[in-house]
Amino acid sequence: MPNKIKRCEWPSDDPLMIEYHDTEWGVPVHDDRKHFEFIVLDAFQAGLSWAIVLKKREAFREAFDNFDVDAIADYDEEKVQQLLKNTKIIRNQLKIRATIHNANKFKEIQREFGSFDKYIWQFTDHKTKVNKWNSVRNLPATSPESDAMSRDLRKQGFKFVGSTICYAYMQAAGMVNDHLTKCFRHKELIG
């Protein structure tokens, strides 16, 4: 019998979660559209499980113009009402309105720094912080870096950017490598 691939436990046996874990989670992101997608999805995750958000990801892409920050920044009240009626996404009015608001703040950061990528990676000194956790129980919900990111994003005017959301975003965007040391992705992402 072949050796089973060792990975983090959190994807369980969910094929969608396994695919996300094996191909995306913890991979360094340097594309502004992808950064915005993760900011939006992590905000919508607040109070819910990532599995729920991931299952609705394609519907979110369709509903939010493939996370085109310019398009979203121009959404009007009619578009908000349309999104609130879309049963395929998470219909939270505060989060929908925050997404539009954050799109405008995201654009301001792009103008000031040249790209959101240049701005956001400063919180980890422009490199991935490699952690060495051996159990999911060791994974933190926040870090000094996510605290600093949260404070600065709030200062910039962003909404739904508490430290826990920022830490989840850092994990997704590869700013931290939180794959367990026994997971095959931990070494792959270092090397």
Basic shape: globular
Number of domains: 1
Q: What is the CATH class designation?
A: Mainly Alpha
What fold name goes in the CATH topology slot?
A: Endonuclease III, domain 1
> How many distinct helices?
11
Radius of gyration: 17 Å
Structural class: mainly alpha
Architecture overview:
The protein has 191 residues and is mainly α. It contains 11 helices and 2 strands; from the N terminus they run ααααααααβααβα. Helices cover 54% and strands 2% of the residues. A two-stranded parallel ribbon has the order 1-2. It is globular and about 55 Å long. The relative contact order is 0.17.
Keywords for this entry:
mainly alpha, 191 residues, 11 helices, Endonuclease III, domain 1, two-stranded parallel sheet
Topology:
Blueprint lengths: L14 H9 L8 H14 L4 H6 L1 H7 L5 H5 L3 H8 L8 H21 L2 H5 L8 E2 L13 H12 L7 H10 L3 E2 L6 H7 L1
Parallel strand pairs: 1-2
Helix pairs in contact: 2-7, 2-10, 9-10
Offer a concise description of the structure:
The chain has 191 residues and is mainly alpha-helical.
